[in-house]
Write a structure and sequence with these properties.
By secondary structure, the protein is α+β, with helices and mostly antiparallel strands. It contains 6 helices and 4 strands; from the N terminus they run αααβαβαββα. Helices cover about 50% and strands about 10% of the residues. A hairpin with a 2-residue loop joins strand 3 and strand 4. Helix 1 packs antiparallel against helix 2 and helix 4 crosses helix 6.
């Protein structure tokens, strides 16, 4: 998704006659590509490792995927406290995708958050913020 946005930005920029407009449009696509890439999310862990750590310390596990606008909304609203949860990219971890399917009845709907055995699909950011340790 991010590479497609970046390619579109290049394509739009090279078709512009005005250099300033071309740069501005390219920068917009560059920002969008960065937002929808895994770069704005905390480092992803394998599902098994995230679940083990969560069982020990009670931190939430957030299952997500790149390009998901709801995942991005959750991540941005959590701000710097996002690191208080374990993040699992379901596109890189088949066990994570299976965990989400088990909770959602066969769908891979994300974000799915599991806190102390309670699973919530697409939670409100405020709900998760209350469950993060300071």
């Amino acid at each position: 998704m991010a590479s497609v946005m970046l390619a579109c930005g290049v394509l739009v920029a090279v078709t512009q006659d005005t250099p300033g407009l071309a740069v501005a449009q390219f920068l917009i696509f560059l920002v969008l590509a960065a937002l929808f890439s895994p770069l704005v999310f905390p480092r992803s862990l394998p599902a098994g490792q995230a679940q083990q750590r969560s069982a020990r310390d009670g931190r939430p596990v957030v299952y997500w995927r790149p390009g998901c606008r709801y995942c991005l909304r959750l991540r941005l609203r959590l701000g710097p406290r996002a690191g208080g949860a374990y993040w699992v990219n379901i596109w890189r971890d088949p066990a994570g995708a299976a965990a989400v399917r088990a909770v959602t009845g066969g769908d891979e709907t994300v974000p799915t958050v599991v806190v102390r055995g309670e699973a919530v699909v697409n939670p409100e950011p405020a709900w998760l913020l209350r469950r993060l340790t300071p």
